[in-house]
Specification:
198 residues; single chain; 2 strands; 2 helices; alpha+beta
Amino acid sequence: MASIKLTKNELKSQKDSLKRFQRYLPTLILKKQQLQMVIRQVEVKIKEVENQRDELYSSLQIWIAVSGEKLDLSALIKIKTIDKDIGNIAGVDIPVFRELTFKTVMYDLFNLPLWVDKGLSAIKDMAAFDAEIEVLKEQIELLGNELRVTTQRVNLFEKVKIPDTKENIRKIQIYLGDQQTAAVVRGKMAKNKIVKVS
């Protein structure tokens, strides 16, 4: 800790700093709470989307078992773009999933089974669920980083800055009080000497 000047100006500076820290701390605590709440909400959303994806996958497994055909549809699906917006949570820019778009791939309807259209649609839905989950995980990562920084700041203010500033104010006040007391004593001693001399 840097040494402080034991002056009235330094006392005023330390008091101003303390007011500033105490005014800023509740904002940081509120931001921390908001980030924690949003992270929990995003985690719940991930579970919901994963459940939807798993339900779709389970229904596909039954459907595939009934059809009994082995056919690779991956050549018929090409992802074009993942459309995202930018959202803002507690000052953090996060990606927000909108939709997954696919390139149109032409295929011969006569050479493929009748269920291909439904299969392609299901695979596109699965890919959209996976893309949304990835975007939600990216949100959690960004929000988690901001939460870590905010928590560090809260701890800095609560455990370091505010106690140190209060201690500095106490030291300066004790020193200035001692100086004032010493000045009064010197003044009385000087007055007594003047009275004795006269």
